[in-house]
Amino acid sequence: MMTQSKLERFGKSLDELDSRISELRRLVVDGGEAYRDELIQLEDKANHLAQEVCSDLSAWDKVMLARHERRPQSSDYLAAIFDEFVELHGDRRFGEDRAMIAGLGFLGDRPVAVIGQQKGRTASERREHNFGMSRPEGYRKAMRVMQLAARMGRPIVTLIDTPGADCLEASEGRGISEAIATNQRDMFGLPVPVVCVVIGEGGSGGAIGIGVGDRLLMMEHAYYSVITPEACAAILWRDPSRREEAARTLKLTAQDAVGLGVIDRIVDEPNGGAHRDPQATADNLKTALLQELETLQAVPPEQLMADRYDKFRHMGMPAELRRDH
Q: What is the pLDDT of residues 79-90, one digit of tens each?
């Protein structure tokens, strides 16, 4: 029998408080000064509850935060962080994949290429974006834009947010495995800085298909895993209800990943998760991206590619062997 996690017990109450706070803020902005005291009280209550809820989150709690319906998605970061973004469409082989957004823009005054996986929020948006599960043409479009960026000398930023790649018959028939494998191979040969960020779900090959970079970052409450906890539990124990146990065992949190040497940096989220203050979250991410690109821009292309290859070759090694290399 499944037990409720901490976030499942208190998360709904926190979401309800946040909804009321948003409503009161609109009223105050419109001149409703009578609501200001109630707003201050509720903000204080919500912040205390968020601090209590997030003080000791389980791995499964982190998965739920990564999937929160109001969590910022790639399109939100594109609007908040990148300027003059121009989206490019199609893989020039089959068609367009709305689960993958790709294009050119500016990060501050730095021209970059950006590739991001998009889930959508409403039912129609989720259908349009295939719930963030990219098809072969999505990965081929991503690589087309990366190669364009390489020719233009632009750094590349990828925003990872997917439960996994699309694995239905049509995608299998068009070569989803080959498209992901080709992207992994070709990203090692990009002569420009590549920074990858897991902003929500980092699921399996769907994530690694745009996840080979010089730096791999994770948002504080994202997860990165070869499989979802539910699928893992169903396969190992034939019991999806053991998802919390699977989440613990998979070591999928950002804190696990940095300890294992899988990622390079954790980007802080506001108290209670990214969805509670999307602008502050975007500001934190922008700062981290600018810092990483500033460092990488000084590295010659040949060294960038060699270091990137070396980074992934040594991933998974025991810590003492990593130090020796």
A: 999 999 999 999
